């Protein structure tokens, strides 16, 4: 017996309602993720992009890097034989250090693409370091951005790291994004596309880096710990692993300059140490929506080693 028109209409409405419900229950792609609120302050816009030769030098693996024709972007790659890295030509006492980075999709477990500050060559075995590291992954899982601070040898021997990790609100393989560190005498601010994601304050002399540091970029094999604690390692059947650096920016107080002749790059629009209301809202959003690990909340750690917590 044929269905009546009223029954057909009801059935069609029910089918549409079920389809909409199923769509709502489906996981949303990365591109549909919520975006952070505007920080209202864009320090990267106050600095010009530098040619690589203006600020940096090749440190290792020269055969695993290529410079663009305009000299402003650098491609690094890692294979079974080597990774590659570069280092700023000068040391700094404070400043803004940024680079736009794009990493490779697919299987990249164990691969560490890093942009960081360090003085490990000047103070071997007793160095300071401030890290932003994009840790490779396996298909279907997001990259992890790890930020870290080592102070006076806490990254040497017995490791006392201060890691905070994020799953970003975008796909870092799809395009370039700007990763930056503002290191001033009173705090370190980590930013992604000018959005502050972590603030590390100077609370004691023993927990804050205050010696000169250089800026570095690199790609290297961190299979022992980078991806799920070392569960997944670099698989060189997928080599080469490629990372691209562009939009290199430095605005800092050089270590060999006159102590009073340079003002630190401000972390906020007012120039004060305190962040603006908009910046505070942005950092709170990042930590609520993107942060997946915070060392101060790790009960397995000896908190006597972390007085700042």
TrEMBL record:
Spell out the subcellular localization from the entry: Secreted, Cell wall; Secreted, Extracellular space, Apoplast
Q: Which residues form the active site?
A: 129 (nucleophile), 133 (proton donor)
Q: Name one GO biological process term.
A: cell wall organization
Domain of life (superkingdom): Eukaryota
Q: What is its EC number?
A: 2.4.1.207
Q: Where is the signal peptide?
A: 1-32
Q: Which GO terms describe its molecular function?
A: hydrolase activity, acting on glycosyl bonds; xyloglucan:xyloglucosyl transferase activity
Matching Gene3D superfamilies = 2.60.120.200
Q: Among the entry's GO cellular component annotations, what is one?
A: apoplast
Assigned protein family: Belongs to the glycosyl hydrolase 16 family.
Q: What is this protein called?
A: Xyloglucan endotransglucosylase/hydrolase
Q: Which organism is it from?
A: Urochloa decumbens
Upper classification of the organism: Eukaryota, Viridiplantae, Streptophyta, Embryophyta, Tracheophyta
